[in-house]
Amino acid sequence: MYQQMIFVNLATNDVAASKKFFTELGYTINPQFSTDDCACVVISDTIVAMLLSRQRYADFTKKEIADSAKTSEVLLCLSAESREKVDELVEKAIAAGGSATGETQDHGMMYGRAFDDPDGHTWEVMWMDPAAVQG
Question: What is d(CA 120, CA 98) in angstroms, rounded to the nearest whole number?
Answer without folding.
Answer: 8
